[in-house]
Amino acid sequence: MESSVCLDTDTLVDILRNKKEIVGWMQEIEKNTTIYTTIINVFELYIGAYLAQNPEEKIRSIQKLLSRLIVLNLSEEIVIEAAQQYSQLRKEGDSLENEDILIGTIALIEGCPLKTNNKKHFSRIKNLRLC
């Protein structure tokens, strides 16, 4: 079991939707694992909340979930690495959305594996560990 993990937006949404498998996984690992997400994931969650029919309820749920996590922020080191990763992908004729490059690079630089349902997508970020 990892001692730390960074949760991607799709994983956070599954938790917010009370998907049994991911909620059980989260309860199991919380005891011995430091759980992170990124400021970019927080941004994406709040966009979803503000677009919803009942944003106040969604915002309360997000805030409750985020109180259990550590939010990783951007730094100059991270944006430089993200720019390098993005540029390399473009040179190879590939790409990822800016948000995803930043999410993946934050997890990479902070040394956390990224828990995502989109492994194929994030596997394009060199040296990023996925779970």
Distance between the termini: 10 Å
Instruction: Describe the main β-sheet briefly.
Output: 4 strands, parallel
Helical residue percent band: 55-70%
Please give the oligomerization state of what you see. single chain
Briefly, what CATH class of the domain at 4-73 and 111-122?
Alpha Beta
Q: With helices defined by DSSP (H or I, 4 residues minimum), what is the helix count?
A: 7
CATH topology of the domain at 4-73 and 111-122: Rossmann fold
Would you mind describing this structure in some detail?
The chain contains seven helices and four strands, in the order E-H-H-E-H-H-E-H-H-E-H. It is α/β, with parallel strands linked by helices and 131 residues long. The chain has a domain of 82 residues: Rossmann fold (3-Layer(aba) Sandwich), CATH 3.40.50. The protein has a four-stranded parallel beta sheet. It is globular.
Outline the secondary-structure elements:
Layout: E1 4-7, H1 9-16, H2 20-29, E2 34-38, H3 39-51, H4 55-66, E3 70-72, H5 76-91, H6 98-110, E4 114-115, H7 119-122
Parallel strand pairs: 1-2, 1-4, 2-3
Helix pairs in contact: 3-4, 5-6
